[in-house]
Write a structure and sequence with these properties.
Blueprint lengths: L2 H7 L2 H9 L11 E4 L3 E11 L2 E11 L2 E4 L2 H11 L4 E4 L4 E7 L3 E5 L1 H9 L6 H15 L7 E4 L13 E5 L2 H17 L7 H11 L5 H9 L4 E4 L2 E7 L12 E17 L5 E6 L5 E4 L13 E10 L5 E5 L9 E4 L8 E4 L8 H15 L6 H5 L6 H12 L5 H19 L7 H10 L4 E4 L4 H10 L9 E2 L12 H9 L7 E5 L2 H9 L3 E5 L3 H7 L5 E3 L3 H9 L2
Length: about 550
C-alpha cells in the first residue's frame, strides 16, 4: 500500500469539490478556528451560542509559529490577555471558551486538510504517514470524503513526534473504519500500540481509572494504532445538524451503576449511552477517553455531574470540565458463569519460574554465557523439552546439554532446599474461597509429575490440589489443549464452563484451544498489555479474584 495509489484515485477535481462544499458558517467539533491575533481554538460544540463558537484554546502563534498550550496555560493566557473569550455557556451550564463569529480570521476544516494531503506530492514525514493511513482506509472501502484530519496536522504545526488524529463524519463508516484498522493490524500494514505507548496515553489523559481498567476498555475500541511508529486515533463526529437545545441546570455530583440499553451513539461527540434506570435516562461524555466505553447489556459504574434538561429529564455528564477530575464511565467486569476452575502452577500458584531462571543463569555462567532477562522470561510456561531446545539455540553449537542441566538441577535443588519456593500472593485466600463456595478446582501444569509434586511440597502446598494433571499424563503439552481438557474431564465439567487461570502466552493459547474461559493473572505490565487480547478477563494478582469468587452466585 503506497500513497501514490491513493493520489491516482483522488483527482484534483474531487479534492476541489470537497473543499468547495464546506460551509464557512457551519462549525463542527474537531474543527479549528483562528483569531486575527493568532489564537487557535479547537471547536467543541456545533451550535453557535450568543454569537460565539464554543471552543477551547489549543495554540498561540509566537513569531508566526503555533505553540501548543496546556489547559492551565490556555486559561491563564485568556485571563491575562483576552478575558472576554472565557465563556459561561447557559445551554451547557459549563465554563469554556467562546469566540465571536466576527472575530474568526480563519476556519480550519479537517476534510479540507484530507483533500489537500491526498494530492500532495512532496509531504513531510508525518504527512506521508497520514497519506499511508488514508490509502489503507480507502483500500478498505472508506470514502475519503468522510475523513478529516485534525490536531497539529490540521494547522501545519506537526513535528516528527506528532500523532495523527483522524475524524470520520459518518457513524456507519466510522465502525467500518475500525474494522479496517483491525484487519490492517492483523496484516501488518498497521501495528498495535506497545506497552509504553499505552502508558504514555494513559498518563497524558489523566483519567480517573486505574491503568489496567483503562487498558481493558481502550484495547477493544479498535480506534488507535501505530503507522510506521506514529500513533493514530480515530474519532467520530456525526455529520448532522443539531437543533438548538434549552439551558440545563446542574444538580450536583452523582455516582450510580446501571445497565446500558443503547450504545449506538457511544463513539459520538458527545458520547451518549441510554440507561435502564428509574430516574436517569442517559449519560453523556464530553471527554474522548469514555467514547466507545460500553456495549449494550453491560453494566457501567458512572461518576459525573447530574443535570436536568429543559424538559425535566435528568442525565449525567462526564467531562463537565476539561480534566474531568473524579468523573468516569467504567464497565463493571464480573466473572462469567462457570462451574469449575483450573489453575496453572508455575508463575500462577508458585513463583517457581524465578527459581528455574536463577539455576539456568548460574549454569550458563559456568560455561561463560550470560542469559538475559528477556530470553529467560520467554521460557516461562514451556515444557522442559521446549526449554532445552531454546537453551541449545541460545547457547550455541557447543551446548553440552547433559552438563548444563546437571549443573542447573544442582543449583535449583540447592536453592529450594535452602529457601523453598515462594507462593504467589493471594493463592491461599483464593483456594480457601473455592472450598468455602464448594467450587471444584484442579491444577494443570506443563511440568512433569515428580517436579510438580516437589514444587508444591517446597512451596508449602503439598495437599492443596486433590486433582492434578501434569505434562507426562497427556499426549501433548501446552499450547495444545490436552492438559486442560483432561483437567475438565476429571472435574466432570464442561470445558466451556471452566475458568482457566494462566500467566503465560503458552497457557492462554492452550486454554483457548480447549474451549475454556481463560483468565490472565500477570503482574508485569508489558506482558499484560501484550497478552490481554488472549484472555477473557485480566487481573494483576490472584488477590484481585478473591472478592469476585466470594460474590459469585
Amino acid at each position: 500500500m503506497n500513497p501514490e495509489k491513493l493520489i491516482a484515485k483522488w483527482s484534483q477535481s474531487q479534492a476541489k469539490d470537497s473543499v468547495l462544499s464546506l460551509d464557512s458558517n457551519h462549525f463542527q467539533p474537531r474543527d479549528f478556528i483562528e483569531t486575527s491575533d493568532g489564537l487557535i481554538f479547537a471547536v467543541v460544540d456545533g451550535q453557535i451560542e450568543q454569537g460565539r463558537v464554543l471552543c477551547f484554546l489549543r495554540y498561540r502563534r509566537e513569531g508566526g509559529r503555533p505553540v501548543k498550550l496546556g489547559t492551565e496555560q490556555a486559561n491563564a493566557c485568556l485571563a491575562a490577555h483576552d478575558p472576554n473569550l472565557v465563556f459561561a455557556s447557559p445551554r451547557l451550564a459549563a465554563r469554556l471558551h467562546g469566540v465571536p463569529v466576527d472575530r474568526i480570521a480563519r476556519h480550519y476544516w479537517p476534510r479540507q486538510r484530507t483533500a489537500e494531503l491526498a494530492v500532495m506530492a512532496a509531504p513531510d514525514p508525518i504527512e506521508a504517514k497520514a497519506q499511508r493511513c488514508l490509502a489503507i482506509f480507502q483500500a478498505g472501502g472508506i470514502p475519503l470524503t468522510t475523513i478529516g484530519i485534525t490536531g497539529s496536522l490540521l494547522i501545519g504545526a506537526q513535528r516528527p513526534a506528532s500523532d495523527l488524529d483522524f475524524v470520520i463524519y459518518d457513524r456507519d463508516v466510522f465502525h467500518r473504519a475500525r474494522e479496517v484498522v483491525r484487519d490492517a493490524i492483523a496484516a501488518g500494514d498497521l501495528a498495535e500500540l506497545a506497552a509504553d505507548d499505552w502508558r504514555e496515553a494513559y498518563d497524558r489523559r489523566g483519567c480517573d481509572l486505574g491503568f489496567d481498567d483503562y487498558l481493558w476498555h481502550e484495547r477493544r475500541k479498535l480506534n488507535k494504532g501505530l503507522c510506521d511508529g506514529t500513533k493514530f486515533d480515530l474519532t467520530l463526529v456525526a455529520d448532522a445538524d443539531e437543533s438548538p437545545s434549552a439551558p440545563v441546570r446542574k444538580l450536583g455530583c452523582l455516582s450510580l451503576t446501571a445497565e446500558v440499553t443503547d450504545a449506538s451513539q457511544a463513539f459520538d461527540f458527545p458520547a451518549r449511552y441510554r440507561l435502564a434506570h428509574p430516574e436517569i435516562g442517559e449519560v453523556l461524555s464530553f471527554t474522548h477517553t469514555y467514547a466507545g466505553q460500553a456495549l449494550v447489556g453491560e453494566w457501567v459504574e458512572i461518576s459525573g455531574q447530574l443535570e436536568q434538561t429543559g424538559d425535566g429529564a435528568r442525565r449525567i455528564i462526564v467531562g463537565s470540565t476539561r480534566e474531568a477530575t473524579g468523573q468516569f464511565i467504567k464497565v463493571r467486569r464480573g466473572l462469567p458463569a462457570f462451574s469449575a476452575v483450573i489453575l496453572d502452577m508455575d508463575g500462577l500458584v508458585l513463583d517457581s519460574e524465578t527459581t528455574y531462571c536463577g539455576a539456568w543463569r548460574k549454569a550458563a555462567a559456568d560455561v561463560g554465557h550470560a542469559l538475559d532477562d528477556g530470553f529467560l522470561e520467554s521460557l516461562f510456561g514451556r515444557h522442559a523439552d521446549d526449554v532445552v531446545q531454546a537453551l541449545a539455540a541460545e547457547l550455541g553449537p557447543r551446548f553440552d546439554r547433559e552438563g548444563f542441566f546437571r549443573a542447573a538441577e544442582r543449583y535449583w535443588f540447592e536453592h529450594i532446599e535452602t529457601h523453598g519456593i515462594p507462593r504467589m500472593p493471594g493463592i491461599e485466600a483464593l483456594l480457601a474461597s473455592f472450598r468455602e463456595a464448594s467450587i471444584p478446582f484442579a491444577l494443570a501444569t506443563n511440568s512433569d509429575g515428580h517436579y510438580a509434586r516437589l514444587c508444591l511440597d517446597r512451596g508449602g502446598l503439598p495437599e492443596a490440589f486433590p486433582i492434578m494433571v501434569t505434562r507426562d499424563q497427556v499426549a501433548l503439552g501446552k499450547p495444545e489443549p490436552d492438559i486442560f481438557l483432561e483437567a475438565a474431564r476429571r472435574l466432570d465439567a464442561d470445558p466451556a464452563a471452566c475458568l482457566v487461570l494462566e500467566d503465560s502466552e503458552t497457557g492462554l493459547m492452550a486454554a483457548r484451544a480447549a474451549g475454556t474461559q481463560p483468565i490472565l493473572i500477570q503482574r508485569r505490565e508489558d506482558l499484560r498489555v501484550r497478552l490481554t487480547p488472549l484472555a477473557q478477563l485480566t487481573f494483576v494478582t490472584l488477590e484481585d479474584l478473591v472478592d469476585l469468587i466470594k460474590s459469585h452466585p
